[in-house]
Design a protein that fits this description.
Blueprint lengths: L12 H5 L1 H16 L9 E6 L7 H14 L4 E5 L10 E2 L7 H4 L1 H7 L4 E3 L3 H10 L4 E5 L11 E7 L19 H5 L4 E5 L6 H9 L4 E8 L1 H5 L5 E5 L4 H10 L4 E6 L8 H13 L3 E4 L1 H7 L6 H6 L1 E2 L2 E5 L2 H12 L2
Parallel strand pairs: 1-5, 1-6, 2-4, 2-5, 6-7, 7-8, 9-10, 9-11, 11-12
Antiparallel strand pairs: 3-4, 8-13
Helix pairs in contact: 5-12
């Protein structure tokens, strides 16, 4: 879906009109989060966010998985597989599976560690354990109380914060903020800006650690692109991608935005190619968007022509995060 602009502005008429639906949604979501979940038989770390849309969950999960694997942990990712058709549990094959089956995020995760896609998180955790997982790292699932978690990290965008602070559909929150803060162990603020200041203050009042991260572009990849670019993205916060590309030194001549997890059509692919050729531009997109193109023959030309700008999550307080995880996991 393409998120409405009023989510990220001061609450107005549109959000007020939707407030009864938001109250009903929140009344269901909050108790779901608070219920006692099933035990997986192995430790579970959950990386989630308070809002719909992009905050940096997947890069954070990948960074933590790499850190844990360096420490000798046999880590499995567990994800819902948003945007894919598979109910699961399914072990993802990063080379053979398609994004329309397992979701774009699952393909990225599977390049780093074994990944299970499952709509039923308890069944997914059982499958991960059966495949030899010593530790499960959930990408998303903070609001899903079906599985007991040993540690819950909430990721929030420093610029956008939680928008108008209303619950869906009146705003971007997945559940009332107080209910969500009560169910997390730490907060990671990604990027600069004052948009998350109120949430940071509320977390501090609860005694939660507040850490800071940033998305770092791969400068060697960016340096290999000599021409100005037509940058396009179908992610939760395309502006974050455009800003990262500019930080890497790329000149963005044109921008195209699409809804989050957008499945590109052949017509859209042809239009992007023609626009780039007409203005002598290179094409640039995100890793998630590229993952959705690669297995579609109708988008083969677009996938071949589009440059990808990889990013990594750099966490300033990684030592504190490691210590908190060791304590939570009993290591």
């Amino acid at each position: 879906m393409r998120e409405p602009g009023f989510w990220w502005r001061k609450a107005g008429l549109a959000s007020a009109l939707l407030s009864p639906l938001a109250a009903a949604y929140g009344a269901v979501a909050a108790p779901r989060m608070a219920r006692a979940g099933a035990r997986a038989g192995v430790p579970v770390i959950c990386i989630g966010n308070f809002t719909l849309g992009g905050a940096g969950k997947t890069p954070t999960a990948i960074a933590i998985a790499r850190m844990l694997r360096e420490g000798g942990e046999r880590v499995f990712f567990l994800t819902r597989g948003y945007g894919g058709s598979a109910n699961g549990p399914k072990l993802v094959d990063a080379d053979a599976d398609r994004a329309d089956v397992v979701g774009d995020e699952a393909l990225l995760l599977a390049r780093v560690a074994p990944t299970i896609v499952a709509r039923d998180r308890v069944a997914g955790a059982s499958a991960a354990k059966a495949h030899g997982a010593q530790l499960i790292l959930m990408d998303d699932g903070l609001q899903n109380g079906s599985l007991e978690k040993n540690f819950r990290l909430a990721v929030i965008d420093g610029r956008r914060g939680i928008g108008n602070a209303r619950v869906f559909p009146a705003g971007p929150l997945r559940a009332p903020l107080a209910a969500q803060l009560a169910r997390v162990d730490a907060l990671l603020v990604v990027g600069g800006g004052a948009g998350a200041s109120d949430v940071v203050a509320a977390a501090a009042q609860r005694g939660l650690p507040v850490w800071h991260g940033r998305l770092a572009p791969h400068h060697e990849t960016a340096g290999a692109i000599a021409r100005p670019v037509l940058a396009f993205a179908g992610i939760g916060d395309p502006d974050k991608f455009f800003a990262t590309a500019q930080e890497a030194g790329l000149e963005i001549a044109q921008r195209r935005t699409f809804p989050d997890h957008h499945c590109f059509t052949a017509e859209e692919g042809a239009e992007l190619l023609m626009a780039a050729d007409r203005d002598a531009l290179a094409l640039l997109t995100t890793e998630k968007d590229h993952a959705r193109m690669t297995a579609d023959p109708a988008l083969a030309a677009l996938a071949q022509r589009a440059h990808v700008l990889p990013v990594t999550m750099q966490i300033d307080e990684m030592a504190q995060l490691q210590a908190a995880l060791r304590k939570a996991l009993g290591r």
